[in-house]
């Protein structure tokens, strides 16, 4: 009787372990396949100081970082353009003003601004409150 129970018990343990590991492996493959691809944002933010405005080309150029070319944004036909919170036309925008908004990359070299918020003065940046350290 002891000779019969020991092999049966060990066989049950071995087969049970195989089934558990195979089902766990199958779940891992399923979850990797079911994960949706990371969605890229359609519109990206931009901000900076206006370097030039071209009304004929319908573009705004912003100062770039050191060693990089200026950023040029073409305005979309349905672009929302505001100057200090009021609706404006591109002809009212001047170099030296501050701008922020959102754009969409059309190709590797072309971008199209959808929302353009222009300010005559540099807007204050919202700073995160500093954590106070009360260690004693």
Rg estimate, integer Å: 30 Å
Round the mean pLDDT to the nearest integer and report it: 80
Return the CATH class of the domain at 44-119: Mainly Beta
- Main beta-sheet annotation: 5 strands, mixed, barrel
Strands of the biggest beta sheet: in what spatial order? Answer: 1-2-3-6-5
Q: What does the oligomeric state look like here?
A: single chain
Query: Helix count?
Result: 1
The helix/strand class is alpha+beta
* CATH H-level homologous superfamily name of the domain at 44-119: Copper binding periplasmic protein CusF
**What spatial form do the alpha-carbon principal axes imply?**
elongated
Q: At CATH's second level, what is the architecture of the domain at 44-119?
A: Beta Barrel
Strand content: 25-35%
| Total beta strands | 6
Percent range of helical residues: 10-25%
Terminal Cα span: 70 Å
Poorly predicted segments: none
Order of helices and strands: HEEEEEE
CATH domain topology of the domain at 44-119: OB fold (Dihydrolipoamide Acetyltransferase, E2P)
């Amino acid at each position: 009787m002891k000779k019969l129970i020991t092999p049966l018990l060990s066989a049950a343990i071995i087969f049970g372990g195989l089934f558990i590991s195979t089902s766990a492996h199958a779940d891992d493959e399923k979850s990797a396949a079911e994960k949706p691809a990371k969605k890229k944002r359609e519109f990206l933010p931009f901000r900076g100081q206006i370097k030039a405005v071209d009304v004929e080309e319908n573009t705004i150029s912003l100062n770039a970082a050191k060693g990089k070319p200026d950023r040029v944004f073409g305005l979309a036909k349905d672009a929302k353009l505001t100057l200090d919170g009021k609706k404006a036309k591109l002809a009212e925008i001047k170099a030296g003003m501050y701008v922020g908004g959102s754009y969409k990359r059309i190709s590797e070299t072309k971008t199209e601004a959808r929302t353009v918020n222009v300010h005559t003065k540099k807007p204050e940046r919202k700073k995160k409150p500093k954590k106070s350290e009360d260690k004693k």
